[in-house]
């Protein structure tokens, strides 16, 4: 039996978030519909944040509303950062809510103008509201492996934070390599320690390919026992401070690698490639995904075929 | 003690080979000099092939001559495909000679207009000449993991070929994922089987990042016990049939990953990044390397720093 890996598609949230031009609501809805047709079962669809801070997500309600007829086996996660966001997410019919904070004081302050301790207090408060509605919660821990102000972290840095969250009843955690600094041995060691200490935790990895280590870090996660990965169609969603660098790990590239290795993702790679190519046209720039350029390893040429010189 | 990994720099051979415009001899020489200053100890410098087939390598003698004062601890490998090439390589003072053939009949015929069996006969003949001069030989096995005409190979496909080569006295083999089709489990399994069956073999991996699996395949090789990898500055050297796809695994990106994990490469990453950026200017196009765009994981920002919005 093939081992199952669950991918969470983040293209319309983490992917689109830093796109400078507003992407029309209709396109977002249409893309998500076709991602679902390509086999995507989990998505971080949008974020319920103030449109002043993230104008790209100003249509969060409209996107959710346009997809209210989604299949029952598809899970929509949405990001909320405060009470208003949680209320909006609940009203919009989210299936799960994602909260987030950073390990790094500096990074956390820059993102939320709160200390880590204040962010945790806030999350503790928000958890109660989501629990009242019986909405499952995932907590994303940004800069879990390091941050560009403080450097690379040992597992000991993130583990006490997971301990606090699990004490509050959280059973799904997303360790995020927000700025693509983590290396494979670090990912493996951290995930092994986390899964050993919290055996009942649902552990997700949110990896970026900023420094070319994304796929290697997926392998490291798999070796540690992680089976849930966030990724973005075409690999979009970089850092504002690394122009030209790769973004999130690329959905179709990672699915291609996993399927070659015998893992089951339930995704249709050809459909994903079609969507990635279309997105490249839509955003009018070369996107990081490789499979859409090179084809799958299983795409064979006839004997008569000659490469262009 | 940090575990040693030896990188062989192939930018001026596999990297430049498919560049359409001729790169001046002076630039090639200057780049190799500065790669050596950056810590590079092994290079595949050039190939002694007919200039009609590979015009970019028409200055093979001139490049070697311009670097005849190289340090003693630096090894220059050069590629030769026939007797004339071997004589030219010897006359030019090569330190080691690389021969090559493909596992794939189709790929081998397209590259050399010979069957695999004819190529092996040819290599067996060439080995004698190199041995007379006591010049160490490496044999590169192209499409070791699969080819775009025949698909992905099991280890059983390449092992009998290694057996024949070792019977002929070859003790250094380069397994090449020429078209970037290999996946990490395959690389690990193949290398484990090869190293088990041929424990005295010096095994090199020549990996491409065509489908985004390059760094993951390096990890797989390391886990199998491989400590020698070919790579190209800035990740250049793609396939003519995958335009826009990544080329060879990128020297500075892989060195960055290895050093983060505690391996010793003896390379100066900052110098490599400087050279990669310069090469990007020289070739007037965006090159695949990520570290030159994103910076190293250890490059820290001050607290005052704000990302561009």
TrEMBL record, chains A, B:
GO terms for biological process: ketone body biosynthetic process; L-leucine catabolic process. Gene3D superfamilies: Aldolase class I. The keyword Metal-binding applies. Transmembrane segments: none annotated. InterPro entries: Aldolase_TIM, HMGL, PYR_CT. Residues 5-273 form the Pyruvate carboxyltransferase domain. Keywords: Lyase, Metal-binding. Pfam families: HMGL-like. GO terms for molecular function: hydroxymethylglutaryl-CoA lyase activity; metal ion binding. The keyword Ribosomal protein does not apply. Residues 290-309 are annotated as: Disordered. Belongs to the HMG-CoA lyase family. NCBIfam families: PRK05692.1. This is Hydroxymethylglutaryl-CoA lyase. It comes from Cytobacillus depressus.
